[in-house]
Amino acid sequence: MIVIAVATLAFSGFEFLRTFRFVLYAEAAQAVVVSSSRERGQYLMFKGYPERVTFSDSSGNEHTAAIYYGQPGLHRLGKTVKVLYKEYDPVGTARYGDASQLWLLPGAFLFVGAMGLYSAFVVRNRGY
Hints:
Blueprint: H1 2-25, E1 27-35, H2 37-40, E2 49-56, E3 62-69, E4 80-85, H3 90-93, E5 95-96, H4 99-126
Antiparallel strand pairs: 1-2, 1-4, 2-3, 4-5
Helix pairs in contact: 1-4
C-alpha cells in the first residue's frame, strides 16, 4: 500500500510541476466557443468531449483549437472563455484557463496518494 501511495504522490508532484510550468510560461487570450460537443456527442477515450474555440494570439493571428473537456457541452456556442497557450504552438497547446480544469487532475492524485499513505500508516500502527 505504501508503494502505491508513494507512486501516486510522485505522479501528483510531477503533474503539479508540469501544470505550474505551463501556467507560468503560457500566454492568455479570450476565446469564443465556435462548436460544442453537445451538438455532436463525440467522446475520445482519456481526453473527453471536444469543444472548438477561436482566439487571437499575442501577434494578432487567429487560431481555432479543439480543447477537450470532461463534461459534454460545458460551454454554449458563442460564449467567451479564457484560454492559455504556448506561443510556439497556440493550437496544439491551448487549454482552458479555468483553475478547476488545470488543477483537478494533480489535486485528485494528491488526495488519493495522501489518503493511501495515511491509511497505510494507520493500519501499520494499529498492528493489523
